[in-house]
Design goal:
Layout (H helix, E strand, L loop, with lengths): L9 H15 L1 H7 L22 H19 L7 E4 L4 H11 L12 H11 L4 H10 L5 E7 L3 H16 L3 E11 L4 E2 L2 H4 L5 E14 L6 E7 L10 E4 L4 E8 L6 E7 L3 H4 E4 L15 E3 L1 E7 H4 L19 E4 L11 E4 L5 H10 L6 E2 L5 E2 L31 H11 L3 E12 L9 E10 L5 H8 L3 E3 L1 H13 L4 E2 L1 E2 L9 E4 L5 E3 L3 H15 L19 E2 L5 E4 L3 E2 L1 H6 L1 H4 L8 H5 L4 E7 L6 H13 L4 E7 L2 E2 L16 H8 L1 H11 L6 E2 L2 H29 L15 H22 L3 H29 L5 H21 L4 H15 L22 H24 L7 E7 L3 H18 L1 E7 L7 E6 L1 H8 L3 H9 L3 H10 L2 E5 L2 E5 L4 E7 L5 E4 L2 E5 L5 H22 L7 E7 L5 H15 L1 E7 L6 E5 L3 E10 L1
Parallel strand pairs: 1-2, 6-9, 7-13, 10-11, 19-28, 27-28, 29-30, 31-32, 39-40
Antiparallel strand pairs: 3-4, 3-18, 5-6, 5-17, 7-14, 8-9, 8-12, 15-16, 18-20, 21-26, 22-23, 22-25, 24-25, 31-38, 33-36, 34-35, 37-38, 39-42, 41-42
Helix pairs in contact: 1-26, 4-5, 13-14, 13-19, 20-21, 21-22, 21-24, 22-24, 22-25, 23-24, 23-25, 23-27, 24-25, 25-26, 27-28, 32-33
The protein binds one RNA strand of 77 nucleotides through strand 6, strand 14, helix 11, helix 14 and helix 22.
RNA sequence: AGUCUCGUAGCUCAGCCGGUUAGAGCGCUACACUGAUAAUGUAGAGGUCGGCGGUUCAAGUCCGCCCGAGACUACCA
């Protein structure tokens, strides 16, 4: 027996199937039944369980699940080791806020030990919720034995990787310009800088300084700054290559000295009024307003300025290499300032980079160990070398001063004829969120991976990766690789993987530890040298690891560099660290690297996708993954980002509970390409449920209803295909085409196309054509071979569809598959997920047949539309339709499906109209594809000429297969192929067209047709009565009907037909019906009838 | 600011190498059908294919610029 549930309830199916999977270990079996030598390697990008799962996680995981399931069904062994990302700033910040502490309190109010314990507890806080959503959404991943990034074994593998890089000389200590809070004494992450309220409007003194061009008396570059305190650190000026610059002759407004200043032409208007050859110095000393000038004495492009030298503005410190040159940079604009950018490599990120590019040194002073540092110390004060301002804070850090350093510097510049202009300037400036004091951009020590040296190789290897979509790989990712900077590994935090590097205090000697064993050996050495009793800590995290002291080869004490490493390195290490490679599982690793497939959100492009790729390239000279799908964002239905604040976040648990996991998954995949952003609309899920799952469910229950009545259990031998009716062969052909295409789409990482094709098949072909046209085969007559063929055909379709849809909708497909298979035991798989993905049988694909049926569908549709136009009920049989014949083959094709069409539209015959009848009217159009290329400019004229052709011209072209076309003196020899000739009108008839198809309908109704029409009406009414009286489908009846001029002929001529259709054993015409009911028939005919149930 | 994606009917999306009536589903309206019935069919309304310019005989499709939405990265001297 097939199950016949009362209605479609996807949530119930979810529950039932989940229980089944768990009880029968279907996931485990689906992996284990496949050969280990035939693996498809998947890497799970580790989520962080310290936040609740969102609907976008359902999206990302659906994509992962689809391809793993597909490959698994296709015969691959697909192990899916789960993982958890456990380190990182978000976790630390969460713990800080829950404990009500700040970073400064760590190690003071709370020990590092306790703090890290708190992190470790927090990090898995929502693990249960994650496990729950994983289960409910049907995502198959092994969560019993996941990799966890805080485990010692994981850390050890990461250390090993770092050691490989260290040995390749790819780890170095340098500095970068980072946001730094002198008040808090700590660097700030970009996350902290983006906290609300961090940027505040403040009023600063801005200055335009005059940098004297080397070798001139009075020529100056003008450069603007809002941070005059960085001027002593200036070592370069930067201009834009294509910006126009001018040299302006005039006077300094403060000193009255004659000067020639260089600035961007576009910025002139901001500082100068008009030219005045007779200008006096007094006229410019009036104040801060724009001033007049004498004349523009020269113009040049920025590129012409490149390499020019100037004199140091404030010579407190001498640079170690040649400096004070004009550079060209692409970041220069003329929106503010002078179009010339003051460049201080120690205090600006742009400055740092451009200076590096030109080998311009930063201004540095040496500390007690001879290590270089900037002119401002970590408290935000000028170092003593800056004599005039030594010890003064460069920004407001609570000191009470009459004038700021900026103001004093401006005064000094004024006095020395080095200032062009100064004014107060309001701008938004970042502040430390803890101390509320201004942030400085400050050079901070960091450990780097020399990723830039592997840039070319990464770029090369990237070309071998199959990106979905391709543009992310070539564009976003490729461009990023092209401009790759070194990877800043350092994080000054507590909860993360400690950098395994120990250094001597002077920084001259260092050791990188690559394993626990190494560490043990080094500890022994140190113990011996220093007389200590250290052991390898049980937990490799801080603070225990910090307590370990090692010794250099010459016996000097070494301390661990206190940094942690970037968490992105953690997750990028997972291909190795998940197996504790190389300390364990060498074989396992070898068989699972690189991955065949990974998938994450597009926001991981420069995150996980990059770190995986970078580490694999640098350490193993290999890609880490061969195929990668990056999905877009899940937005709300209006296209806005989902957020708690807006209250538009969709709860994945609610959604799955209300709509079922399958409808949710199917909607997400079918609605838009996964790499496009998804506007997530619950109504869309509902539509998918009704339209697709509802239709498929209806088809199944239709099948189940009749198969149960007939006890069809697929026990009979397969009816040979050539003995099945055309329509069976057609749907089987289409099914095989579908199998072929859907398999290819999955294999090609195109899930959206796969789902759309399945939907189209189920809706347009299987349900609305095959089942609709074949209904009678299921309900009528005996258990004949034709009926068995129908059952077998529909069964095959349903069972195959279950397999095709299984990767996307694992629950419903399994429900469907098992309902079918349990009744027939046709296959020995207990779940669809243990079955093999169908393979198309090319021999069953009959393109001519598909074409034929397509004609049938389209002709039927045209006839129905004509009936509609003519107000002809479908129940009223009509004599014939007229069909112009396109070519001989066409007529043959249509003949093949004639019966289907005639039955479908209730017509008696098709009359073919060929040319010879002479009543067709043809239309001619040029074939633009063939002609356009040949005619070129004459195409337009040709189209006009061809458009004006009459029936005779067309007839001639068709008979002679040639035409001479002359345009503007050129003559072209054309053949029939150069035209598109169609028949779209039959004079005197109502016609309908669809592309090349044209149909006319004969609406003449003879008495006999009328009687037959009435007979059909009667059948319909009697059936309604049967139904309204709840008769059994198999009950026989007897019928009494009143005589009536319109009704009597129908009963007389078509009585047997009526009886057969309604299972009536008798049909009597009587003068009056006792206790009957009134029937309303077309044309206002009313008669009484009595229907009796016979048992 | 750079890089990338997207912009086609009220909504969600197709539209292949450029080729002449720009499609589907949903929604809406009307009609039909009724042994799949909380299903189905047919028809109608609804489009300056984001804008401007270019290439071409021909542009929704190729190129450039601009506008709008979004993502990432960097930053504002």
């Amino acid at each position: 027996m097939y199950k016949e549930p009362k209605g479609l309830n996807l949530s119930e199916i979810d529950k039932e199937i989940l229980q089944f999977w768990e009880e029968h270990k279907i996931f485990e079996k689906s992996v284990e039944q496949r050969d280990a030598d035939n693996a498809y390697v998947f890497y799970e990008g580790p989520p962080s369980a310290n936040g609740k799962p969102g609907i976008h996680h359902v999206m990302a995981r659906t994509i992962k699940d689809i391809f793993c399931r597909f490959q698994s069904m296709s015969g691959k062994r697909v192990e899916r080791k789960g993982g958890w990302d456990t380190h990182g700033l978000p976790i630390e910040l969460k713990v800080e806020s829950e404990l009500g502490i700040t970073k400064e309190d760590i190690g003071k109010k709370i020990s590092v030990d306790d703090y890290n314990k708190a992190c470790r507890e927090t990090v898995m806080r929502y693990k249960d919720l994650w496990d729950d959503i994983t289960r409910k959404m049907g995502y198959w991943v092994d969560l019993d034995d996941p990799y966890i990034t805080y485990k010692n074994s994981y850390i050890e593998s990461v250390w090993w990787l770092l050691k490989q890089l260290y040995d390749k000389d790819m780890l170095y200590k340098g500095y970068t310009i980072q946001p730094y809070s002198p008040a808090a004494g700590t660097g700030l992450s970009s996350h902290e800088l983006n906290m609300p309220g961090a940027y505040k409007d403040i009023k600063d003194v801005s200055a335009i300084a005059q940098f004297k061009v080397k070798g001139t008396e009075n020529e100056y570059f003008l450069a603007w700054t809002t941070t005059p305190w960085t001027l002593p650190s200036n070592t370069a000026l930067t201009v834009g290559a294509n910006i126009d610059y001018v040299k302006v002759d005039g006077y300094n407004r403060y000193t009255g000295e004659r000067t020639q200043v260089i600035l961007a032409k576009d910025r002139m208007a901001a500082y100068f009024t008009e030219a005045n050859p007779d200008l006096k110095p007094e006229e410019v000393k009036a104040g801060n307003k724009p001033i007049p000038y004498i004349a523009i004495v020269a113009e040049m492009k920025g590129s012409e300025l490149e390499g020019m030298e100037y004199e140091q503005l404030l010579p407190y410190v001498v640079p170690e290499k040649p400096a004070f040159k004009v550079l060209v940079g692409d970041f220069v604009t003329t929106e503010d300032g002078t179009g010339i950018v003051h460049t201080a490599p120690t205090f600006g990120a742009d400055d740092f980079r451009i200076a590096q590019k030109y080998d311009i040194p930063p201004l540095m002073v040496k500390d007690e160990f001879g290590n270089p540092g900037p002119l401002v110390d970590k408290q935000g004060r000028f170092v003593e070398e800056v004599t005039d301002f030594a010890g003064r804070y460069v920004k407001d850090y609570g000191q009470e001063e009459e004038r700021s350093v900026d103001e004093d510097i401006v005064i000094k510049l004024k006095q020395e004829n080095k200032l062009f202009h100064s004014e107060k300037y309001v701008h938004s400036y970042p502040h430390c969120w803890r101390t509320d004091r201004p942030v400085l951009y400050y050079p901070l020590d960091s450990w780097f991976i020399k990723a830039s040296s592997a840039k070319d190789r990464m770029f090369e290897l990237n070309k071998t990766i199959n990106w979905k979509p391709a543009s992310t790989g070539e564009g976003r990712f490729g461009k990023w690789l092209e401009n790759l900077q070194d990877w800043n590994l350092s994080r000054s935090r507590y909860w993360g993987i400690p950098l395994p590097i120990w250094r001597t205090e002077d920084g001259r000697q260092a050791k990188c530890i690559g394993s626990v064993e190494d560490l043990g050996k080094e500890i022994e050495k140190a113990n011996a040298a220093l007389g200590l009793d250290q052991t390898v800590p049980a937990d490799l995290h801080r603070p225990y690891i910090d307590e370990i002291t090692l010794v250099a080869d010459d016996g000097t004490l070494m301390k661990r560099e206190l940094d942690l490493i970037d968490v992105w390195f953690d997750s990028g290490s997972m291909p190795y660290a998940q197996w504790h490679y190389p300390f364990e599982n060498q074989e396992k690793f070898k068989n699972s690297f690189p991955a065949d497939f990974i998938a994450e959100g597009v926001d991981q492009t420069r995150g996980w996708f990059y770190t995986l790729h970078a580490i694999a390239t640098m350490v193993f000279d290999s890609v880490a993954y061969k195929n990668v799908v990056s999905n877009g964002l899940v937005l709300d239905k209006d296209g806005r980002k989902m957020s708690k604040r807006l209250g538009n976040a969709v709860d994945p648990f609610e959604t799955i509970k209300n709509y079922g996991a399958d409808a949710t998954r199917w909607y997400m995949i079918s609605n838009a390409q996964p790499w496009d952003n998804l506007k997530f609309d619950l109504d869309g899920i509902d539509e998918v449920r009704r339209k697709f799952f509802g239709t498929l469910y209806n088809t199944y229950s239709f099948f189940a209803l009749y198969a149960n009545i007939d006890k069809f259990e697929y026990k009979e031998a397969e009816v040979p295909l050539d003995q099945r009716p055309e329509i069976d062969r057609w749907i089987i052909s289409l099914l095989n085409t579908l199998v072929k295409e859907v398999g290819a789409e999955y294999a090609n990482y195109e899930p959206t196309n796969a789902t759309r094709k399945v939907m189209n098949f189920v809706d347009a072909h299987l349900s609305n054509w095959y089942v609709r046209l074949c209904r009678r085969r299921f309900w009528r007559g005996d258990y004949t071979e034709d009926k068995i063929a129908a059952y077998q055909t529909l069964y095959t379709c349903l069972s195959t569809i279950a397999k095709l849809m299984a990767p996307v909708s694992p629950f419903f497909s399994d429900w469907l598959y098992r309902n079918l298979n349990e009744a027939t035991a046709k296959e020995n798989h207990e779940s669809v997920h243990l079955a093999d993905f169908p393979k198309a049988d090319e021999a069953l694909i009959d393109k001519a047949l598909e074409q034929r049926m397509d004609y049938a569908q389209r002709i039927s549709s045209l006839v129905l539309s004509l009936r509609k136009k003519e107000r002809m009920r479908v129940r009223q049989p009509l004599q014939k339709i007229l069909l112009p014949v396109l070519d001989e083959d066409f007529q043959k094709q249509v003949e093949g499906v004639k019966d289907l069409v005639l039955a479908e539209v209730n017509i008696k015959e098709i009359e073919y109209l060929s040319d010879t009848t002479g009543i067709l009217k043809k239309r001619i159009k040029p074939n633009f594809k063939t002609l356009g290329r040949r005619l070129g400019k004459n195409m337009k004229a040709a189209a006009q000429i061809i458009g004006k052709m009459g029936q005779e011209d067309i007839a001639q072209i068709e008979s002679t297969n040639s035409y001479q076309l002359s345009i503007n003196g050129d003559t072209y020899e054309l053949t029939v192929d150069d035209f598109e000739i169609t028949t779209d009108d039959i004079p005197g008839w109502q016609v309908a067209n669809d592309g090349p198809l044209t149909v006319a309908l004969d609406v003449t109704i003879t008495d006999e047709l009328l009687a037959e029409g009435m007979a059909r009406e009667l059948v319909n009414r009697i059936q309604n009565i049967r139904k309204s009286k709840d008769f059994n489908v198999t009950d026989n009846i007897s019928v009494q009907l009143e005589r009536h001029a319109e009704v009597t002929p129908a009963v007389e001529q078509f009585g047997d037909y009526i009886k057969a259709e309604t299972l009536a054993t008798s049909l009597e015409l009587v003068d009056t019906v006792e206790n009957g009911e009134e029937l309303e028939l077309p044309d206002e005919v009313k008669v009484n009838i009595k229907v009796k149930q016979l048992t």
